[in-house]
Amino acid sequence: MMMIRTLLAVAMVSLLAACTTIPDVPPGTAVPIQIKEQGSFAAGGTMTTAPGAFDPRKPMAPDGQTYHGDHAYAFYQIPVNVRKMPIVMWHGAGQFSKTWETTADGREGFQNIFLRRRFGVYLIDQPRRGNAGRSMVAATITPTPDEQLWFNQFRIGLWPNYFEGVQFAQDAQTRNQFFRSMTPNTGPFDMAVLSDAVAAVFDRTGPGILFTHSQGGGPGWLTAIKNAKVKAIVAFEPGSSFIFPEGEVPAPIPSAFDTVQGAAVPMAQFMALTRIPILVLYGDNIPAQAVDLPAQDSWRARLAMARLWRETVNKHGGDVTLVHLPELGIKGNTHFLMSDMNNVKIADLVAKFLADKGLD
Amino acid sequence: MMMIRTLLAVAMVSLLAACTTIPDVPPGTAVPIQIKEQGSFAAGGTMTTAPGAFDPRKPMAPDGQTYHGDHAYAFYQIPVNVRKMPIVMWHGAGQFSKTWETTADGREGFQNIFLRRRFGVYLIDQPRRGNAGRSMVAATITPTPDEQLWFNQFRIGLWPNYFEGVQFAQDAQTRNQFFRSMTPNTGPFDMAVLSDAVAAVFDRTGPGILFTHSQGGGPGWLTAIKNAKVKAIVAFEPGSSFIFPEGEVPAPIPSAFDTVQGAAVPMAQFMALTRIPILVLYGDNIPAQAVDLPAQDSWRARLAMARLWRETVNKHGGDVTLVHLPELGIKGNTHFLMSDMNNVKIADLVAKFLADKGLD
């Protein structure tokens, strides 16, 4: 009878373990993602009240009415057996949470990949974008054809040609989904507004890891300065807004697209960036020397500024790792490392960084 | 030894069943939601090309560039052991997918509730709203204070007072989240554009059930006319756009807010609405007689038109069930039945309808 009990106990324990433990599994497999909790919320923002008194018989008059805006929106999922720190994923210019969801060619994005690796995942729309569209400042939105600009700027190729070996599927359906993953600003781009709201997201998540993409990089640095709950940053191809201590801003770097300029903050604020591990990643097809194509040349200038920034942060005791992927033999990546065809390899690289820094 | 094997087999089978089958569970429990697949996509929409030739050295000029817009955006989740038909959930005026997510007071919304009941769930943002913001038509967005209008119009109360027994939490944090669950139109409201895009969503989902809220009701009827894959509609407080056969449009119904008018379509189109089961639900605090408060009176007129519409559809062989919840003794519901404090009871009522119609 003792043996029966033992056998039953062993069987039940191992089966219960199979129920409640999800091992890290590759994306796209048939293994379900077990979600302990999921939901959405607004964070941060401000509000205003129109002068006068509200009259319920004149509801279309603003008198005495309120208006809430400039918050961030977050959709979050917490898997079972979740790791200690969640990841907050922040899109770039013209984009929204879709950046991290299904890729344009229909594979799993970083949302699912990191859920499967048992991280809590928060996808945000920054203030004045997508589901956080209620802006405190007016805007006019005009449907201006601009997709060839983005095709080039995002280093998919030189329209209508794709870069040789590019990590981006070359069919019409993928292009269609990719172009439809943009959504406009509903108010002016304002780094202070954005970083205030995302700092409020971290008040809700608790200590966590911030992933930024492109234009999200600049307000991402500010968010880490504003909220010590940002415990690490992985910046995917951060754009032009690198932050230096006052008096240490390097000379602007001109390019065929624009001029990349560092921004200054007081040293006490800057030092926040030296206290967390930071990984900065850039993809392929960034020229080493100046070229007269604005899209390519803009990234040469940005990568050069990123290197100066890494040196400055590390000189002050920081822990910035900058990886230009081709130097590791990882070729063909566009501006969208997180959704490129080799995005699992990119996720592996990021996961290793998080493990090395004790953040998983 | 036989007994041991039997005991072990029984234990393993019951535990494996616990692993692989999710029973219907109440929301907010600790039971994980097992997601077999989740992701997002754009559906439908159009595109335009600017005249001229694209010059990569002048990327800011629209010449020869394309612009994709007027698609819908959908985020979907398919649970394990999924039921036959998924549910596509469509928000109302000023809202987005948030309508179906976490409630303003932090409980589970219909997204989670119906996932737990093993339905596939697709949350959409209609064209020119939220994550589907890329509009083919320009718009100016002005931050006009309007929240007391919505507080009244959504029948939470008569600002600043709440209706007695209202199914809406009365704390400041809930109000804050509720007001921040709005996002503006990024282009004109156009029922043809909206229904084209959501019909394309159903081409992707296959045969399914459409939930509409408020202003989504009108384009929802058009979607069912355009795509026979819409196999049922549950309309939560549909607004003013009821669709009648030509020659059978009833007299307009004036209210203290606006005049509710039916729209006409050819009989052949109208008949599509007679071929699917439809459930229409309205909440509490809708006056039976005309009152001079626009918010209340608008719903008296809408409910009256909904009843005329039900009679017309059913007269032509349709299957419309209209439920005014107070008649069932369900009290205090606002315009947001799906997120009210009794939303599990509302979900039960909807689930029973789907079961009665053989749709689960």
Automatic annotation (TrEMBL), chains A, B:
> Mind telling me what this protein is named?
Alpha/beta fold hydrolase
InterPro entries in UniProt: AB_hydrolase_1, AB_hydrolase_fold, Carboxylesterase_BioH
Q: Which residues form the AB hydrolase-1 domain?
A: 87-304
Which Pfam families has this protein been placed in?
A: Abhydrolase_6
Q: Where is the signal peptide?
A: 1-17
- GO MF terms, alphabetically ordered: hydrolase activity
Q: Which organism is it from?
A: Pseudoduganella umbonata
Q: What is the lineage of its organism?
A: Bacteria, Pseudomonadati, Pseudomonadota, Betaproteobacteria, Burkholderiales
Is Hydrolase one of the keywords? yes
Q: Which PANTHER family match?
A: AB HYDROLASE-1 DOMAIN-CONTAINING PROTEIN, HYDROLASE ALPHA/BETA FOLD FAMILY
Q: Which UniProt keywords apply?
A: Hydrolase, Signal
